[in-house]
From TrEMBL:
This is Transmembrane protein 41aa. It is found in: Membrane. The chain crosses the membrane at residues 171-189, 196-217, 237-257. Keywords: Membrane, Signal, Transmembrane, Transmembrane helix. Residues 103-222 form the VTT domain.
């Protein structure tokens, strides 16, 4: 009961911090009314009375579809011109909040990183935040959630424990295999890792390397979304070559790990008759 109360306190404190951060916004680019084709619209101007903080505060939420994602990306891109540090702090805080508490939807934030920060800064940011957030989830599970996770997922935890014990001599490569070819969801692996005695150093490094291809694809998708204005742009030779490069980048590390796994890792594989056999080499 004490561990559950502690976890609730952490969630409440983190939620209050994130809400406060989104509420107290610095002054952004101001807008003034402009007459265009008989209609009054808003355009950015430093002498206008109406700041964009009102517009931003009412649109700050976790995106649930591509339309919301595109709108949020455009909003934060314009706000970043004057308040780069604030946008960076807000993005990092939101990302770590999702990862630490195993909330689905980090792929949207990876795409958002590419749209706001570009291909290189966005990829570095996504990899660092994914790793740090997953490690925070590891630590929260270690401190507060061990008994609850075992009670909720006894079979899955038992299976993962057995696989970790079978692959102790090549545990790092086994963890990479799980990230490249997720036999269990990433959120479950983050929460159950301390329960099955995976060292935090191996966990940290395996997350950073193992999720690099996935983060790369998401970030590049965000870069393309911010640059594409029509379907014709999407089917250009440049876009097709970018997609091909992304596919190759994602497949090469996975192919290497798969080849290594056939030689060293101990995994359950399907036999021709449909039964499960243990592969040991």
């Amino acid at each position: 009961m004490r561990s559950l109360l502690g976890l609730i306190c952490v969630i409440v404190a983190a939620s209050f911090y994130l809400y406060s951060l989104s509420l107290y916004l610095p002054a952004g680019p101001r807008r003034r009314p402009v007459q265009t084709a008989g209609r009054e619209t808003l355009s950015e101007h430093p002498d206008s009375e109406e700041p964009s903080r009102f517009l931003l505060s009412h649109n700050l939420k976790f995106p649930s579809d591509l339309e919301e994602l595109r709108g949020l990306a455009e909003l934060l891109q314009s706000y970043r011109t004057e308040h780069t540090a604030y946008v960076l702090l807000l993005f990092c805080s939101a990302y770590l909040y999702k990862q630490s508490f195993a909330i689905p939807g980090s792929s949207f934030l990876n795409i958002l990183a590419g749209a706001i920060f570009g291909p290189y800064e966005g990829l570095l940011l996504a990899c660092v935040l994914t790793t740090v957030g997953s490690t925070m989830c590891y630590l929260l599970s270690q401190a507060f959630g061990k008994q609850y996770i075992v009670n909720l997922f006894p079979d899955k935890v038992s299976l993962l424990q057995r696989k970790v014990e079978d692959n102790q001599d090549c545990l790092f490569f086994f963890l990479l295999f799980l990230r490249f070819f997720p036999m269990t969801p990433n959120w479950f692996l983050n929460m159950s890792a301390p329960i099955v005695n995976i060292p935090i150093t191996l966990f940290f490094c395996s997350v950073f390397i193992g999720l690099l291809p996935y983060n790369f694809i998401c970030v590049q998708t965000g870069v393309m979304l911010s640059e594409v204005s029509s379907l014709d742009d999407l089917v250009s030779w440049e876009r097709l070559l970018q997609l091909l490069a992304m596919a190759c980048t994602a497949l090469v590390p996975g192919a290497l790990i798969r080849r290594f796994s056939h030689r060293r890792l101990k995994l359950d594989v399907k036999s021709p008759n449909g039964l499960t056999e243990k592969k040991v080499q």
